[in-house]
Design goal:
226 residues, alpha/beta, Rossmann fold, globular, two-stranded parallel ribbon
Length: 226
């Protein structure tokens, strides 16, 4: 009897124990990088090097440290078709030069894992939204940062994925690369971005991607409204 009572009390204590506290950050950011068929090796490497350079840039670090928690949580995924997405760099807390440099190095090391399969921005948004609940960090803002060079041509309509994410309290910003579709920025404005302060920073081509992502990350992290 005593053993039964003791086990019951232990079970109650376990159930009543609080969940491990999440580390506080100012922003949870998912970087969704296009790996579809239109993105050849050179173009993919230009995207990757742009993100690496941005996280090594003093202005990005300054923006990160301007918030009350002086840190952001960030992860990266590659995307292509409706069911083809992979998280290539896990959730990381970036708050000083060492952690920013470590995240940049992780991006640099991460190989390309997807090739072809169409362009499913909706699939990228749906998958990115699933990464927030498994993050070990907590933040008042959750944002998906989508970069790509084409409009949605696979999976469900992208506006439906956008609306579902926004309804869940997730913002979406866009970095369209206009090399193949010159009006892709307007498409992103109308169909992809959503949430309070959502914005688009277009890159005219892959060679200017690094400048565009630097500008976009600074605005995103500092929560500048457009």
């Amino acid at each position: 009897m005593r053993r039964t009572i003791a086990l019951a009390l232990l079970a109650l204590l376990v159930c009543a124990s609080p969940a491990p506290a999440q580390t506080a950050a100012d922003l949870q950011l998912v970087l969704a990088v296009d790996a579809s068929g239109s993105v050849d090796r050179v173009r993919f490497d230009l995207q990757k090097s742009g993100y690496v350079a941005a996280f090594r840039h003093a202005r990005v670090l300054q923006a990160i440290r301007s918030g009350p928690n002086r840190a952001i949580a960030v992860t990266m995924l590659q995307w292509t078709g409706p069911a083809q997405q992979v998280q290539t760099v896990g959730w990381s807390l970036v708050g000083e030069e060492e952690t920013a440099s470590a995240f940049a190095a992780a991006i640099e090391r991460a190989p390309r894992q997807l090739f072809g399969g169409g362009t499913s921005i909706s699939g990228a948004i749906d998958y990115a939204a699933t990464l927030f609940p498994i993050s070990p960090f907590a933040a008042p803002r959750r944002v998906i940062d989508v970069s790509g060079d084409g409009s949605n041509n696979r999976g469900r309509p992208v506006a439906l994925a956008r609306d579902a994410a926004v309804a869940a309290g997730i913002g979406i910003n866009g970095l369209p690369i206009l090399a193949l579709e010159p009006d892709l920025d307007r498409y992103y404005y109308d169909n992809v971005i959503g949430g309070a302060g959502a914005f688009v920073v277009p890159a005219q081509n892959y060679e200017t991607f690094a400048d565009a992502i630097l500008k976009k990350l600074i605005a995103e992290i500092a929560a500048n409204d457009r």
